[in-house]
């Protein structure tokens, strides 16, 4: 499956909307888009994962790299609208304790 990545500015922050699957084949595209945004921006960066239905460990690696870059830049980075299936991966690995995550609210878009 392909990965779609779109960027928009909203209320003083950058929102990266991601759709599709994040795996070994698509993670490099996400990383190529996300890391420069964090490194070049002084704004708050949010990654909207509402339309991501699958993610493997390479996706986790992208977000760990993004977290590291945001800490070096002293900027804010968070994942929003994280679906249950993807959220569980962060919980299992303990990354939900170090990366700011906001779970998707059920029923809002149904």
Descriptive labels:
five-stranded mixed beta sheet, 3 helices, globular, alpha/beta
TL;DR of this structure?
This protein is an alpha/beta fold and 110 residues long.
Q: What kind of sheet is the major sheet?
A: 5 strands, mixed
Any idea how many domains?
1
Helix content: 25-40%
The CATH superfamily is identified as STAS domain
Enter the CATH topology name.
Transcription Regulator spoIIAA
Sequence of secondary-structure elements: EEHEHEHE
**Which consecutive residue ranges, at least 5 long each, have pLDDT under 50?**
none
Rg, rounded, reads 13 Å
Task: Categorize the overall geometry.
Answer: globular
- CATH class, please? Alpha Beta
Largest sheet strand order: 1-2-3-4-5
CATH architectural designation: 2-Layer Sandwich
Beta content: 35-45%
How many β strands by DSSP? 5
- Going by helix content, strand content and strand pairing, the class is alpha/beta
Number of helices: 3
Mean pLDDT: 91
Please report the distance between the alpha carbons of the first and last residues: 23 Å
Give a written overview of the molecule:
37% of the residues lie in helices and 36% in strands. With 110 residues, the protein is of the alpha/beta class. The protein has one domain: Transcription Regulator spoIIAA, CATH 3.30.750.24. A five-stranded mixed sheet has the order 1-2-3-4-5, covered by helices on one side. Strand 3, helix 2 (57-73) and strand 4 (77-82) form a beta-alpha-beta unit. Helix 1 (27-40) runs parallel beside helix 2. The longest helix is centred in the middle third of the chain and has 17 residues, at 57-73. 25% of the residues are buried.
């Amino acid at each position: 499956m392909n990965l779609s990545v779109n960027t928009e500015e909203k209320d003083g922050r950058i929102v990266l909307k991601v759709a599709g699957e994040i795996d070994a084949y698509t993670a490099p595209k996400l990383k190529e888009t996300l890391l420069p945004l964090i490194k070049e921006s002084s704004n708050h960066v949010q990654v909207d994962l509402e339309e991501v239905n699958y993610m493997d460990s390479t996706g986790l690696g992208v977000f760990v790299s993004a977290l590291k870059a945001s800490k070096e830049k002293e900027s804010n980075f968070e994942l929003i609208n994280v679906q249950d299936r993807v959220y569980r991966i962060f919980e299992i690995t303990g990354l939900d304790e170090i990366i700011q995550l906001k779970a998707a609210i059920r029923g809002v878009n149904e």
